[in-house]
Design goal:
This protein folds into 2 domains: 63 residues, Orthogonal Bundle (Arc Repressor Mutant, subunit A); 123 residues, Tetracycline Repressor, domain 2 (Orthogonal Bundle). The protein is 64% helix and 0% strand. It contains 11 helices and no strands.
Length: 213
């Protein structure tokens, strides 16, 4: 039987190792642990109700570690949602387009993305989100903050009306993606992109700036 060394730290005297705060399975493990924690908090409390410090506290790491992996909350949120494409790049130029002539650009942008090599990843993302309440909550936050906000930029009207218009635009865009690429209903699934633009853009434009009643 060994005799404890006088003055040795308690962990060494009891044979237990001391845990290092903020280190869970190495740096890669810490990053994934932070992301898992952030996803849960964003899904439960939303973007505005979640702070970097809250994520650090819930993950059991130092706030400096969260900032080491992610520049800010926007970047942390973007990685938490695991988008297959960056909305800022996809929607570049949409916010600057004339609201009265924006619908065609929106529909063409959506079709261009879905007709690209990213389609497989987009399908996996949608199917995975629909089957999970937490992922659906994250998707809702992402759509509101990073998609609808750009699509509806500079659209005139009271905030409540602009928000409603944004929701209505989303019904058309999301519905188009689901029917054409997920459910693949014919003949829409096989229609040429230009034909789809002509069929859908008019309704999207009405929701953007036209009469709602």
């Amino acid at each position: 039987m060994s005799v404890p060394t006088p003055g040795a730290p308690a962990a060494h005297r009891t044979g237990r190792s001391t845990a290092v705060r903020g280190r869970r399975g190495g740096q890669a493990g810490s990053r994934e642990h932070i992301l898992d924690t952030a996803r849960k908090l964003f899904a439960e409390h939303g973007f505005e109700g979640t702070s970097m410090r809250q994520v650090a506290r819930a993950a059991g790491v130092d706030p400096a570690m969260v900032h080491h992996f992610f520049k800010g909350k926007d970047e942390l949120f973007a990685h938490s949602v695991e988008l297959p494409a960056d909305p800022e790049q996809v929607l570049a130029g949409v916010a600057d387009a004339d609201p009265d002539r924006r619908a065609e650009l929106i529909v063409r942008t959506v079709l261009r993305l879905w007709e690209s090599p990213a389609q497989a990843a987009l399908l996996a993302f949608l199917r995975g989100s629909i089957g999970s309440k937490a992922k659906t909550a994250l998707l809702r936050e992402m759509v509101e903050r990073r998609v609808i906000s750009r699509i509806m930029a500079s659209v005139p009207g009271p905030p409540e009306e602009v928000a409603l218009r944004g929701n209505l635009v989303a019904t058309q865009v999301v519905g188009l993606m689901m029917v054409r690429y997920v459910v693949r209903l014919e003949p829409l699934a096989s229609a040429a992109p230009d034909e789809v633009v002509q069929l859908v853009a008019h309704t999207v434009q009405r929701y953007l700036t036209g009469p709602l009643t």
